[in-house]
Each structure stands twice: as structure tokens, then as C-alpha cells.
Backbone:
């Protein structure tokens, strides 16, 4: 982080939004203290939600397009 601070000068403290997921590496005490020292606003990653899953927007859309118009029998 010292190298980053020397390259960015005073820009590290002005209006930085930092987004990361909730992995243990990103939520460790060291990372939290660095983020506080730089006064960065942390944008938390939302917890997993099936209605917000990226696969819904890419994979399932392609699957839906492929299966469109094919009749299926319900065996329930």
C-alpha cells in the first residue's frame, strides 16, 4: 500500500469508493485498518440472492432461448 500511496499522492483520500466481496482476505483486520487509514468508503457486496445471481442474466437466458418452444411433460 505504501507504493500505491506514493504513486497516487493525495488522491488516495478523495472520493474513493472501494467495492469488494466478503471473503476473509478482504474482511481481515489488516485490510479494514488500511481502508480506514485511506478513508475509503467501502461498498459491501450483497449476500447471495438467487434473484441477483449473474448466471440468471447470462447462462439461464441462453438456456431459455435454446429451450423456447420445446414441450416438456410434467411428471410430478
Residues:
Amino acid at each position: 500500500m505504501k507504493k500505491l500511496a506514493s504513486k497516487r499522492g493525495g488522491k488516495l483520500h478523495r472520493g474513493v469508493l472501494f467495492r469488494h466481496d466478503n471473503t476473509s482476505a478482504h474482511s481481515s483486520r489488516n485490510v479494514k485498518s488500511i481502508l480506514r487509514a485511506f478513508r475509503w468508503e467501502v461498498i459491501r457486496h450483497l449476500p447471495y440472492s438467487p434473484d441477483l445471481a449473474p448466471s440468471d442474466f447470462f447462462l439461464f437466458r441462453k438456456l431459455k432461448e435454446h429451450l423456447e418452444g420445446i414441450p416438456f411433460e410434467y411428471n410430478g
